[in-house]
Amino acid sequence: MPENILMLQNAQIFQRDNLVLSNVNLKIDEGEFVYLIGKTGSGKSSLMKTLYGDLPLEKGTGSIVGFNLNTLKEKEIPFLRRKLGIVFQDFKLLNDRSVFENLRFVLKATGWKDDAKMKTKIMEVLGKVGMETKDFKMPFQLSGGEQQRIAIARALLNDPDLILADEPTGNLDPATSVGVMNVLKEIHDSGKTILMATHDYAIILKFPHKTIKCEGGELFEVMQQRS
Ligand SMILES: Nc1ncnc2c1ncn2[C@@H]1O[C@H](COP(=O)(O)OP(=O)(O)OP(=O)(O)O)[C@@H](O)[C@H]1O
Predict the structure, then answer these.
(1) pLDDT of 95-113, one tens digit each?
(2) Which residue, 28, 43, 52, 146, could crosslink 21 as a Cys pair with Cβ 3.0–4.6 Å?
(3) Which family does the entry's similarity section mention (predicted)?
(4) How far apart are CA 25 and CA 195, in angstroms?
């Protein structure tokens, strides 16, 4: 029986005092891959931010990877984020250190201490995204697609229960986007649950999954296809 990873019921998503989405009902089970689509400004990022604790859930009920979004305290947010792998459009790598050091930085910040174990974990996640030979490179020595693979590797470091990807192909050309999607496909095939915001319809056609649309301040499921 798949476990419920994410649940929002009658939720309202706000940016300060502005109501961005209302009547949000969304359930994601373990192992699903779900797209969140919608025009610019329709609320995709605001919904994602609510899910990773960057915006409070003020109306409705919500839970994610075992955390109650209604009662989430500031000090719990780092623990929530350890169970989430978050990938952004603009990669957000630290440009002053190598790929290896970018990943080690996250492990150390999340409590890892043993150097040998950190090295093994870093090489394992780099292997998952096909970047095991790039560990010594600086981010600016990598292409956009390579940087996004590193960002995906970083998201995998703490074995997350759910990956939230906000426009992960938004800065990439079509061929590079397909390469990054193949990486996400492999990660999904290995059992991970993924929620990905995108407005790249070519990608959705090539990699079909359940798709939820933000439109007119509400969410709708637009198609249900087997992946
Ligand atoms: N920091 C903020 N403060 C106030 N309003 C905001 C803020 N960020 C976004 N908004 C507003 O919230 C609404 C939803 O924006 P959001 O960024 O969630 O949309 P989006 O669907 O992710 O768009 P895009 O595809 O361009 O990223 C928009 O009307 C936007 O102007």
Answers:
(1) 999 999 999 999 999 889 9
(2) 43
(3) Belongs to the ABC transporter superfamily.
(4) 15
Q: Which atom, in ligand 1's list, is nearest to the CA of 199? A: 25
Pocket test for ligand 1, best of 45, 89, 214 (most atoms within 8 A of CB): 45
Pure H helices in the chain: 44-51, 77-82, 99-109, 115-128, 144-156, 174-189, 201-206
pTM: 0.93
> Residue 197 CA: which ligand 1 atom is closest?
22
Task: Give the span between the Cα atoms of 28 and 38, in whole angstroms.
Answer: 18
Domains in the chain with CATH codes: 33-53+76-222 (3.40.50.300)
Of all residues in the chain, the percent with pLDDT exceeding 70 is 96
Cα dist from 107 to 94, 101, 117, 156, 184, whole Å = 14, 10, 10, 11, 21
Ligand 1 centroid distance, CA of 90 (Å): 16
What ipTM was estimated for this complex? 0.92
Q: Quick: pLDDT tens for 99-149.
A: 999 999 999 998 899 999 999 999 999 999 999 999 999 999 999 999 999
